[in-house]
């Protein structure tokens, strides 16, 4: 029986090649997009799950509650997890990562800068399942002076030679012995590194100070452990260890346990750049809608062509065929088309996967296509799409009454209404995606062009890696300024995209001195001028006032707003908090200037209250250059840098490119969304084109009669187009509220956002209407130009 169904389905498919092609093409696009989006979603959901005990690992994050604000940080104090393990024996293990950032290593005569360097406790390989290529995971970081490299770093340092047992030297003359080489940390990790140093030579790792939050801390808890048990202990930890430091400032500290597998999609702490579960839901919905649109195309064309299948159904019923068998026949046809589409889709996925990886920023391998889970989902897509596509045509066509069909009194009015509803649904979905795509790019463009409060164009930045060379900064600065293509040279404590943690200051409030946490930044005399920052009140630091390095600070507007000052100039700032009994009084400075707020980080983060201190030769050099002869100017800077600091590599970046990278993840997602938005419209247009073709075929004699009676070509085109125009217009009031609400909720994730704007909806609706007209106008014009003699003649 099944073989017979397949034979008939194949014959029908070959008989109507045009409609079969449209259906298979629509289904192929829908299934291909569904599979690619499924790969994306699967990758997002796989983060950190490759660790053997991933379900037992938790990251400890800090909640710091000040009297006027709450901060949530992914970092903690060094003693925290070590103390928790000692006080609560049910904790199975812990590990801490101490950030070193960017480090220069020496290997013989070779020198390399390497990013993402951390020191880690020797328990790191007991907690996390990183794969060793060389060395022993159990002892790799036990001894002081040990380093474990990733495969990429090992090849960079040692080429094809064995790295195990080799020595590396940092620029501060510390030697490390390579005790292990790991496979590169998988991309589906919330946390990556290029090298791990042992903590034996790291004084910070032995610190018992509870005042600094700068490390990443992880715990291993028993399987199926109720985290509320440990979280209920945190107030006791605060009272015992932390309270003596922070209580007098009115600061409350508590902690949260984040499951390792939830960090990537559910954590959005300060300074983090993770994924978002909202995008997983969005792309899953897009995949579903694309399959649904392709299914709607099939249903539309199947019911539109019902008149051609009506006599077939009538004859089958007269010959004794049961309705259930007719339904099975029509479902077999839809499943066969879906199977053919799946085969074509798998080939397309293989071809498009490298391109999809480049667009999405993923590293999905071909092996993912052979995983049993993925193959099962592919089979589920066939079943789902095949049955959804064929369900209504099967019920509709199998319900024909043979007597009415064979008498010629059969009509398709009910099917016509359903087809119209499906077309409205298609264009409503397409319009929603078009509007959402438009607003996503409007927001990204807003962030790229938003006034940051400083001039980042043609600003070249170089990081110092050690304190020793900075003594020659003034000599370097004077040498560089002799070049007419270099406008300004300055230094600051860190790039503007990452100023660092907070420091406790004693601040003169309207009710007396208070201890409060602010972000500090060290800058030299020319920093504000170099960066084009605007002084709103008071003055800049000045070389003519040497005391500025001791008793002057500059603040931003956010500090004024936080403190509620009417007149900020002259306010006292104690550098180090309020005086404590038995300790020397901290230095006291005064506010000499207020600058316009500028974005220290990307626009995903609100502007922080900032206190600037005047210091010379800070950790980052900023060089403002002319827009012309950039290559020659950079070469000149490199030459003078190497002459001044022969032991330091010259590596630079441009500040605007550095800032743009903060939006790279969203831009990649935007490209994906745009691509699939365009494809949803294409699928809808394929269906509309098929319906327009079939409609003109049905009305060919009517058109011939109208032309004989004097109808013009334009009136015939309008006649054939107006029904489809009405359907698209009906989709507008459905799509607009859904798109507006979705984008309104999405924009709430941004502290600084664009307005949605009425014109977006107007232009999107006009564009959708134009696409509709372009889709049907070819068939309409073709039918209108047909010679009525041909259409009216009787065979």
Folded structure, characterized:
It is found in: Cell membrane. One of its GO terms (cellular component) is plasma membrane. This is ABC3 transporter permease protein domain-containing protein. Residues 285-401, 675-788 form the ABC3 transporter permease C-terminal domain. It holds the Pfam family MacB_PCD. The chain is an alpha+beta fold and 795 residues long. It folds into three domains: 2-44 and 277-447 and 665-792, no CATH class; 91-225, no CATH class; 467-647, no CATH class. The protein is 49% helix and 18% strand. The chain has 25 helices and 22 strands. The strands form three sheets. A six-stranded mixed barrel has the order 3-4-9-6-8-7. Strands 14-15-20-17-19-18 form a six-stranded mixed β-barrel.
Structural class: alpha+beta
Largest sheet: 6 strands, mixed, barrel
Strand content: 15-25%
Number of β-strand runs: 22
The pLDDT mean sits at 82
Number of domain modules = 3
* General form: globular
Query: What is the overall number of helices?
Result: 25
Fraction in helix:
40-55%
N- to C-terminal separation? 39 Å
Order of adjacent strands in the largest pleated sheet: 3-4-9-6-8-7
The radius of gyration is 34 Å
Poorly predicted parts: 495-500
Keywords: Cell membrane, Membrane, Transmembrane, Transmembrane helix
Subcellular location: Cell membrane
GO molecular function: transmembrane transporter activity
Protein name: ABC3 transporter permease protein domain-containing protein
């Amino acid at each position: 029986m099944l073989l017979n169904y397949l034979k008939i389905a194949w014959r029908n498919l070959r008989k109507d090649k045009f409609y079969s092609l449209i259906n298979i093409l629509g289904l192929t696009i829908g299934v291909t997009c569904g599979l690619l989006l499924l790969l994306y979603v699967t990758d997002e959901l796989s983060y950190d799950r490759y660790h053997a005990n991933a379900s037992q690992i938790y990251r400890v994050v800090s909640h710091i509650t000040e009297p006027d604000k709450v901060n949530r940080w992914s970092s903690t104090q060094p003693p925290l997890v070590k103390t928790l393990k000692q006080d609560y024996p049910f904790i199975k293990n812990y590990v801490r990562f101490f950030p070193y950032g960017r480090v220069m290593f020496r290997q013989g005569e070779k020198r390399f800068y390497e990013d993402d360097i951390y020191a880690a406790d020797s328990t790191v390989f007991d907690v996390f399942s990183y794969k060793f290529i060389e060395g022993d995971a159990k002892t790799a970081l036990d001894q002081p002076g040990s380093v474990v490299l990733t495969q990429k770093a090992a090849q960079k340092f040692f080429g094809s030679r064995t790295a195990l047992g080799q020595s590396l030297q940092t620029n501060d003359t510390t030697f490390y012995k390579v005790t292990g080489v790991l496979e590169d940390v998988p991309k589906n990790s919330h946390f990556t590194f290029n090298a791990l140093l042992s903590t034996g030579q790291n004084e910070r790792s032995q610190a018992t100070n509870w005042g600094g939050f700068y490390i990443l801390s992880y715990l291993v808890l028993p399987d199926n452990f109720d985290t509320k048990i440990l979280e209920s202990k945190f107030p006791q930890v605060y009272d015992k260890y932390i309270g003596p430091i922070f209580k007098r400032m009115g600061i409350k500290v508590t902690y949260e346990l984040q499951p390792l597998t939830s960090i990537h999609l559910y954590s959005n702490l300060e300074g983090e750049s993770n994924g978002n579960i909202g995008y997983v839901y969005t792309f899953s919905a897009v995949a579903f809608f694309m399959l649904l649109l392709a299914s709607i195309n099939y249903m539309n064309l199947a019911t539109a062509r019902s008149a051609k299948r009506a006599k077939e159904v009538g004859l089958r019923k007269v010959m004794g065929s049961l309705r259930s068998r007719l339904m099975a026949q029509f479902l077999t046809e839809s499943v066969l088309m879906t199977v053919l589409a799946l085969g074509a889709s798998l080939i397309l996925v293989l071809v498009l996967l490298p391109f999809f990886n480049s667009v999405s920023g993923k590293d999905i391998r071909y092996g993912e296509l052979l995983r049993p889970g993925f193959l099962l989902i592919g089979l589920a897509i066939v079943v789902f799409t095949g049955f959804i596509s064929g369900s209504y045509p099967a019920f509709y066509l199998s319900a024909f009454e043979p007597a009415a069909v064979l008498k010629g009194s059969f009509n398709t009015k009910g099917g016509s209404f359903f087809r119209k509803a499906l077309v409205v649904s298609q264009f409503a979905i397409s319009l929603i995606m078009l509007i959402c795509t438009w607003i996503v790019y409007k927001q990204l463009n807003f962030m790229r062009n938003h006034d940051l409060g400083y001039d980042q164009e043609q600003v070249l930045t170089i990081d110092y890696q050690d304190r020793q060379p900075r003594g020659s900064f003034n000599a370097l600065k004077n040498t560089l300024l002799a070049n007419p293509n270099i406008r300004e040279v300055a230094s600051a404590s860190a790039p503007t995209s990452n100023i660092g943690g907070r420091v406790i200051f004693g601040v003169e409030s309207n009710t007396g001195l208070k201890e409060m946490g602010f972000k500090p930044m060290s800058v030299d005399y020319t920093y504000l001028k170099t960066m084009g920052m605007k002084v709103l009140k008071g003055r800049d630091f000045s070389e003519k006032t040497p005391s500025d390095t001791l008793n002057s600070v500059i603040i931003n507007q956010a500090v004024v707003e936080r403190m509620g000052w009417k007149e900020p100039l002259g306010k006292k700032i104690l550098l180090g908090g309020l005086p404590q009994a038995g300790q020397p009084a901290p230095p006291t400075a005064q506010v000499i200037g207020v600058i316009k707020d500028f974005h220290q980080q990307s626009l995903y983060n609100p502007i922080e209250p900032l206190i600037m201190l005047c210091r010379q030769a800070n950790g980052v050099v900023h060089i403002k250059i002319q827009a012309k002869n950039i290559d020659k100017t950079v070469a000149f800077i490199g030459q003078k840098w190497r002459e001044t600091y022969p032991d330091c590599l010259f590596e630079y970046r441009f500040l605007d490119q550095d800032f743009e990278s903060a939006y790279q993840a969203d831009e990649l997602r935007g490209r994906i969304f745009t691509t699939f938005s365009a494809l949803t419209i294409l699928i809808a247009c394929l269906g509309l084109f098929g319906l327009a073709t079939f409609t003109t075929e049905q009305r060919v004699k009517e058109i011939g009669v109208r032309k004989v009676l004097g109808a013009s070509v334009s009136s015939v085109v309008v006649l054939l187009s107006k029904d489809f125009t009405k359907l698209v217009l009906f989709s507008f009031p459905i799509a607009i509220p859904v798109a507006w609400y979705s984008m309104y909720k999405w924009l709430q994730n941004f502290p600084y956002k664009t307005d949605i704007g009425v014109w977006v909806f107007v232009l999107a609706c006009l564009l959708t209407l134009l696409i509709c007209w372009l889709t049907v106008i070819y068939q309409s014009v073709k039918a209108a130009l047909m010679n009525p003699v041909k259409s009216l003649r009787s065979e």
